[in-house]
Amino acid sequence: MEAHWRTLDDVDLKIIDLLKRNSRMSFIEIGKRIGLSEGAVRRRVKLLVEKGIIKRFTIELSKDYVINAVTFLTFDRGDIAEEVIESISKIPEVESVYELTGRFDAMVMISAGGVSSLNECIDKIRRVRGVKHTETAVILRIVEHKTD
Q: Quick one: which of 86, 94, 130, 144 could link to 80 by a disulfide (CB 3.0–4.6 Å)?
């Protein structure tokens, strides 16, 4: 991935920045903001997607309508970490998975539609082969969330 960043120019970086802030921004609006035609923006975004630099366009749900939690995991063995993380990352409520050093092997960020959905997600994680222990904390309040 690092090699791709060397091929990006300032215009590509501006397009990426605008789309990070609002993935629904039209190509016309992006073009107006950076001084390009709609067609030029469309071509550049298409190339960014084809190169794998932009992987998906998504939304961020209001934190008032979801339950967010962090689950810390320990694995049976260290040599299965990649396999376990791969399985957990496929669970729909899982936002991200981080491999860690220290007391825990991994950390999972979960965004669920309610308490029962959160509980089901944690149960799915516990059933993944190789997961030895989970410890979950519900996030009560987000003090600061940087998207850049």
A: 130
As a three-state string, the secondary structure of the chain is CHHHHHCCCHHHHHHHHHHHHCCCCCHHHHHHHHCCCHHHHHHHHHHHHHCCCCCCCCCCCCHHHCEEEEEEEEECCHHHHHHHHHHHHCCCCEEEEEECCCCCCEEEEEEECCHHHHHHHHHHHHHCCCEEEEEEEEECCCCCCCCC
Q: What is the pTM of this model?
A: 0.59
Spatial distance between the Cα atoms of 62 and 142, rounded to a whole number of angstroms: 11
Condensed to tens digits (0 to 9), the pLDDT of residues 90-100 reads: 999 999 999 99
- Domains of the chain, with CATH numbers? 2-50 (1.10.10.10), 63-139 (3.30.70.920)
